[in-house]
Design brief:
The longest helix has 24 residues, at about 150-175. Strands 3-2-1-4-5 form a 5-stranded mixed sheet. The model has no long low-confidence stretch (mean pLDDT about 95). By secondary structure, it is of the alpha/beta class. The radius of gyration is 18 Å and the shape is globular. Helix 3 crosses helix 6 and helix 4 packs across helix 5. It has 9 helices and 5 strands; from the N terminus they run H-H-E-E-H-E-H-H-E-E-H-H-H-H. The protein has one domain (about 5-210): Nucleotidyltransferase, domain 5.
Length: about 220
């Protein structure tokens, strides 16, 4: 790639990131803006994880996006940058057993509340990916597909996704027959086949797998 093309590509990325700051700019009167997102609502196994991220005012981290649109390598690189640049980061993790107990939506809310509680600073406003979190006294702005529209929510989605993926890779060492390192607990054909062959393990969500196995 020529230097001119590199410069053009970089300029396009800078403009994209600036466009991602529309909500941060709108609420710039707030000192601490926190983005909230989750990872792992859909899988058959593993926890649901929420990330809460407060970035410095004017922060622009290139290549931040909806975590699902990024490669695993890029997510990992951005995770390190976000952890270094952020004013505060909180992570909430809710177990498969708890998901079965209260359902995935309530578990997601619980993970988000836990992530907020783990922040070292109380935010002035929350920019949430799509949802309004019950039992939170902070002003909330739910944004549909917010992880692709807000830099702060995008950063939170990366923190949540990388945290959960790394947990599932660790679980793969404990329960190697399921291939968690490949599918991260989602219902792929290989995962469902392993589930039928070996039955559920302790990190499977019983309420999610009843169509595939009989206990």
């Amino acid at each position: 790639m020529t230097e001119e093309k590199k410069a053009l590509k970089m300029q396009i990325e800078i403009e994209r990131i600036e466009a991602l700051r529309v909500y941060e700019n709108e609420y710039d009167y707030c000192e601490f803006i926190c983005g909230i997102d989750e990872a792992g609502r859909g899988p058959l196994s593993g926890p649901v994880v929420a990330g809460a991220v407060i970035l410095p005012k004017g922060c622009r981290i290139l290549y931040v996006n909806d975590s699902k649109k990024l490669s695993e390598k890029k997510r990992s690189e951005l995770y390190d940058i976000i952890m270094q640049e952020a004013i505060s980061v909180g992570v909430g993790i809710i177990s498969p057993a708890r998901i079965d107990e209260i359902n995935i939506l309530q578990a997601t809310y619980e993970a988000m509340r836990e992530a907020i509680q783990k922040l070292t600073i109380t935010p002035d406003i929350l920019l949430n990916d799509a949802v309004t979190i019950p039992r939170i006294d902070i002003v909330q702005v739910p944004i549909i597909k917010g992880d692709a529209k807000s830099l702060t929510i995008g950063a939170a989605s990366i923190i949540a996704k990388v945290t959960r993926d790394r947990m599932m890779i660790e679980y793969a060492d404990i329960f190697p027959e399921y291939g968690f390192e490949k599918h991260k607990g989602y219902g792929t054909a290989a995962h469902i086949q392993a589930l039928k062959e070996f039955g559920p393990c302790p990190i499977h969500r019983r309420s999610f797998i009843k169509n595939f196995v009989k206990e």
